[in-house]
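Lab notebook: predicted structure, single chain.

Context: the supervisor wants predicted structures on file for every construct in the current expression panel, including those that have not yet been purified. This is the next one on the list. No modifications to the sequence; it matches the entry in the shared construct table.
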Amino acid sequence: MRRQTASSNSVEQDRREALWRYGSARRLFLTILFNAVLVFNAVLVSCKSGTPVTATQAVLDSADQVLLGMSHYVTESGVLRARVRADTAYFFSNTQRAELRNVHVTFYDLTGKATSTLTSREGTHHWRTGDMEARGNVIVVRDKDGATMKTEVMDYDQVGNEVSSDKSFVWDEPGRHVEGDGFTSDPEFKKITAKRPHGTGGQFLLPNQ
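Prediction complete. Output recorded below exactly as produced.
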């Protein structure tokens, strides 16, 4: 009887060990599959956005913190200048920057009124200086009349409170269409200085004018 009991216990232990090994193997397989999906999605996003695959992998691998649904207010001397939002933000403490995906920035004037809204596929926010760079299908819409500035790269200088680009751009507002090879402007696009502008409905300022 004791032998039977011992034999039954041994069988039960073997069964449990087999189940444990199966569960461990299954968890390992699911982990590998999940990581493979992450890498594939990173490569896919990288190809679509034009960002080098290595840069995207570096972001995923070396970010100190990853935040979903980021929202950050940029202020200067206590005055709100911009609100930065992104679907995903990868934070890097050593360089004090955040790499953003699906960017949405609202700019404000000195009275706190929203003046324009920027959207882009990705961007970089330097949280120490407040400077930003937007990349990939960058579109800025002026609130008061729906005028739009379109380009592929746009920089925001917080100290100077200006936006600029050295890439080709297209500007459309009621009664005016202008294209050029680069520009500098305030975030409300009241005064635009453009490089080699051409179009219809009036002229922009040229550099050094």
